[in-house]
């Protein structure tokens, strides 16, 4: 990898000039006014090749797809148009917009959207040019209290208030579905129903975020309400694409109840579906596992004692209109009223290993078991030859307990519901898992930490403010789909196709710091690549072997292993869920960037969805903080910015342009304010009164500041709130001005502008966790973005000294840093210093540190696994001498050593 370049953007001094810097948002207008992008730069970049993540050309797409592409600094102006062509040269309508900017105002990231209705190819070419326009562009109209979106195939109407998030979905003159609503219910006791209440989502705002020509996005917000109570705030985005009959939905809710008496026992999205035709021309479909499809009619005419005729039977089974009953065998026609009409259906996936389908004629009568299976794809259909609604949920079995329900199909109006939490599953119990065990004082809590590694404090293990995001898809179909097409829709719903740019291009764009595509050019590099692949594969496959699934759990992995029981330590305090500890998220995303592997992307994607929502607070006094690892995701009393870290979410945002993750990152720019309400060192400082000074807060300049800096960097490069850039630059320059920079002891922070207060006397305070939550990565990027020699020099000094000798540390900082841990992890810091200084001896030292494996994996560490079967385990499993934190840090260290000093291996 080439030396990280520096481009003149600011004129600063190490100590104080940053405060005087005026913010200039990196917006299209600012870039054009500055005149920093020349025509040669705009037109001089060759088109790049894009491919579908899973390879090939998908048979179906969930309406359309949106993806992000990075560009080298100076390549394109913000108003650059892009053209997309298939491998055969056919123009594909594409909508493009910038989502990230370089400091000079040129585009760093662009987002692109194409409709699933357009011709699909295995690969495409994206480059500068005039975008083709869709034959039927999306049209958004705002009239009075309504917003309507017309894709050219369907029209979706939203009302700006009321109990319906969607007023109607129509295809031509036919209303396919209406009165789309969010439903929830609670009970006041966990073990038994007690008192139950039902709530409906009440819309407070509707905002059009994009309006075509290829893609429209409508954001609906509100809360669930019954009577005077409003709770469970929601944000639901609807995505519609030109020429498509699908509506993609991203649903987020935040839990703001009392976990001791607000037990959710149902959470879903429901539509009323008008029923047309006779019951024997009404069809029900459920997707099973793989290509499996259950195809039935509300009133079946196959398998009867009397045969209506082969043509009639085949028409019904295939989902087509049956011939006129006058043409049937009249022994059937005259007795249709004796055949039961099955109006209600349920496919319930209450765990990750089994689903069951049941049906009944109507309420008040018994349910009949239809069939079952292992893992349903998560799609159902209700309708007939004149149109119907397909409705489904992504990660259906992974996010159990879920359900797809149809009621009233034998009447004039049916209801189709996607249950994100099935009413058949019992209550969602979010209470703490023990009674405190007598840990009433800080000394007792610290002593308990020594044995369980979980930091308990009364009242801190609350889920108040955690969230969950779920993706759903609805298709307004013109007729009952064939079983083959329905299976294709189910596959697209389960794994939405995504276009991607290759690792080589992403690397050449210079984004995300020090990494490089996989390189097996010499045996020594190949050996490390093999270890990285084995390590990633092991952790990825543990998810299924250990069944790390469920509404609140899916996406996370466990922290440490218990070799005696052959299980991960799911019930041992702070050794249970990982909750982003030691940057697992970073490791997984960099692995994807280097390999371009689809499984790697999906693994990291699931983790980002989880850690962005479940492992951090979105409401309340701890808004913006995450929770350290524990048995419950919110159990540990250490609430920290190192867990809510925006750097863990940034990859997914820029690779997919996902608006929800963008919202989360934006909310984190003020997370430094949490240091006013919570003292991170309260148990060490004693139980005295916490009286924080906003001008002198105890915000550490390593773990704390590195996490805050990631949020500010993300906001700055997105052209957002100017305070982000101000605090980012002020923090870096004032830390560098401290006598010992990032290892200076006793520092204090000014909340107003992000500055660290000056100090004159050298002192040292440093811990092994200081840089393993993204500080190394954010500094690698930041130094490449600002022209500040003092910041660069001080950071290089830190990188050189962490694994340096006692004499080197004392000479530079006046003190020995102590016997530090995680020396293998910090080999990447040594590698960075070596690259910046051109120091071959340091490069050799970096490789020695990686191979020695202190607090990690030495060169001779076994990366393979062994199979454990029989009575020693509940299920056959693979186990290896690997822990999640060690794997994450080994992966990050290896990635950066290969990229920075690979030639010295």
UniProtKB/TrEMBL annotation:
Alphabetical list of InterPro entries matching this protein: PcRGLX/YetA-like, PcRGLX/YetA_2nd, PcRGLX/YetA_3rd, PcRGLX_1st, TAT_signal
Record's signal peptide: 1-33
Coiled coil feature spans: none
Domain PcRGLX/YetA-like C-terminal alpha/alpha toroid: 496-904
A matching Pfam family: PcRGLX_1st
PROSITE patterns to which the protein is assigned, alphabetical: TAT
Domain PcRGLX/YetA-like central beta-sandwich: 138-490
Lineage: Bacteria, Bacillati, Actinomycetota, Actinomycetes, Streptosporangiales
Keyword field: Signal
Domain PcRGLX/YetA-like N-terminal RIFT barrel as annotated: residue spans: 48-127
The protein's name: Tat pathway signal sequence domain protein
């Amino acid at each position: 990898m080439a030396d990280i370049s520096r481009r003149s953007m600011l004129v600063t001094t190490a100590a104080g000039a940053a405060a005087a810097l005026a913010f200039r948002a990196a917006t299209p207008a600012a870039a054009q006014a500055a005149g920093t992008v020349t025509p040669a730069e705009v037109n001089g970049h060759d088109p790049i090749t894009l491919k579908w993540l899973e390879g090939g050309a998908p048979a179906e797409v969930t309406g359309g797809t949106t993806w992000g592409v990075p560009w080298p600094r100076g390549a394109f102006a913000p108003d650059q148009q892009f053209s997309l062509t298939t491998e055969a040269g056919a123009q594909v309508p594409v909508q493009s917009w910038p989502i990230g900017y370089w400091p000079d105002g040129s585009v760093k990231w662009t987002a692109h959207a194409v409709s699933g209705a357009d011709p699909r190819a295995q690969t495409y070419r994206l480059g500068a040019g005039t975008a083709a326009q869709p034959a039927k562009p999306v049209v958004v109209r705002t009239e009075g209290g309504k917003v309507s979106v017309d894709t050219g195939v369907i029209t979706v109407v939203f009302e700006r208030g009321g109990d319906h998030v969607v007023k109607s979905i129509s295809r031509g003159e036919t209303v396919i579905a209406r009165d789309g609503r969010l439903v929830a219910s609670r009970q006041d006791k966990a073990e038994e129903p007690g008192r139950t209440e039902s709530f409906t989502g009440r819309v407070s705002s509707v905002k059009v975020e994009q309006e075509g020509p290829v893609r429209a996005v409508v954001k609906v917000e509100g809360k669930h309400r019954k009577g005077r109570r409003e709770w469970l705030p929601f944000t639901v985005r609807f995505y519609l694409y030109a020429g498509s009959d699908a509506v993609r939905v991203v649903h987020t809710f935040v839990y703001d109840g009392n976990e001791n008496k607000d037990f959710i026992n149902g959470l879903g999205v429901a539509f009323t579906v008008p029923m047309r035709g006779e019951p024997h021309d009404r069809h029900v479909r459920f997707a099973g596992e793989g290509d499996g499809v259950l195809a039935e009619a509300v009133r079946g005419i196959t398998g009867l004692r009397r045969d209506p005729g082969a043509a009639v039977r085949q028409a019904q089974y295939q989902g087509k209109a049956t011939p006129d009953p006058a043409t049937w065998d009249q022994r059937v026609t005259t007795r249709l009223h004796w055949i039961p009409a099955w109006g209600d259906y349920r496919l319930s996936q209450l765990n990750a290993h089994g689903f069951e389908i049941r049906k009944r004629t109507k309420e008040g009568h018994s349910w009949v078991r239809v069939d079952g299976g292992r893992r349903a794809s998560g799609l159902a259909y209700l309708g007939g030859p004149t149109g119907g609604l397909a409705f489904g949920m992504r990660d259906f079995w992974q996010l159990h307990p879920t359900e797809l329900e149809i009621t009233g199909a034998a009447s004039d109006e049916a209801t189709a519901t996607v249950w994100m939490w099935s009413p058949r599953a019992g209550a969602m119990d979010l209470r703490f898992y023990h009674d405190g065990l007598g840990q009433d004082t800080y000394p007792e809590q610290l002593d308990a930490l020594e044995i369980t590694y979980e930091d308990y404090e009364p009242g801190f293990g609350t889920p108040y403010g955690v969230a969950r995001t779920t993706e759903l898809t609805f298709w307004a179909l013109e007729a009952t789909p064939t079983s083959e097409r329905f299976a294709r829709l189910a596959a697209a719903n389960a794994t939405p196709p995504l276009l991607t740019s290759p690792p080589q291009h992403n690397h050449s764009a210079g984004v995300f710091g020090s990494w490089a595509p996989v390189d097996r050019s010499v045996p020594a590099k190949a050996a490390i690549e093999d270890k990285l692949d084995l390590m990633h594969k092991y952790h990825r496959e543990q998810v299924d072997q250990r069944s790390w699934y469920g509404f609140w759990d899916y996406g996370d992995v466990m922290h440490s292993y218990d070799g005696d029981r052959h299980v991960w330590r799911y019930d041992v305090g702070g050794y249970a869920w990982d909750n982003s500890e030691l940057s697992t998220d970073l490791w997984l995303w960099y692995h994807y960037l280097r390999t371009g592997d689809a499984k790697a992307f999906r693994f990291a994607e699931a983790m980002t969805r989880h850690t962005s929502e479940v492992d951090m607070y979105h409401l309340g006094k701890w808004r913006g903080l995450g929770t350290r690892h524990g048995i419950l995701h919110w159990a540990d009393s250490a609430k920290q910015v190192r867990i809510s870290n925006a750097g863990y979410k940034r990859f997914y945002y820029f690779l997919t342009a996902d608006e929800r993750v963008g919202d989360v990152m934006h909310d984190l720019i003020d997370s430094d304010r949490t240091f006013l309400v919570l003292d991170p060192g309260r148990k060490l400082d004693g139980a005295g009164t916490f009286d924080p000074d906003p001008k002198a807060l105890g915000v550490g300049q390593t773990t704390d500041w590195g996490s805050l800096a990631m949020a500010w960097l993300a906001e700055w490069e997105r052209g957002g709130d100017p305070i982000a850039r101000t605090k980012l630059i002020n923090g870096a320059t004032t830390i560098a001005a401290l006598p010992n920079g990032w290892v200076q002891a006793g520092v204090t922070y000014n909340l107003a502008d992000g500055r660290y207060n000056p100090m004159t006397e050298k002192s040292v305070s440093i811990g092994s966790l200081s840089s393993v939550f993204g500080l190394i990565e954010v500094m690698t990027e930041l130094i490449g973005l600002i022209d500040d020699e003092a910041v660069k020099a001080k950071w290089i000094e830190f990188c050189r000294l962490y694994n340096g000798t006692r004499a080197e540390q004392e000479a530079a900082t006046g003190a020995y840093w102590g016997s530090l841990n995680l020396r293998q992890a910090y080999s990447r810091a040594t590698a960075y210093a070596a690259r910046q200084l051109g120091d071959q001896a340091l490069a050799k030292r970096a490789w020695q540190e990686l191979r020695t494996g202190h607090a990690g994996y030495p060169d001779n560490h076994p990366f393979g696994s062994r199979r454990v079967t029989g009575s020693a385990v509940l299920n056959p499993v693979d186990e290896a001498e690997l822990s999640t934190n060690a794997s994450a840090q080994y992966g990050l260290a290896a990635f950066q050593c290969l990229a920075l000093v690979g030639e010295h291996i």
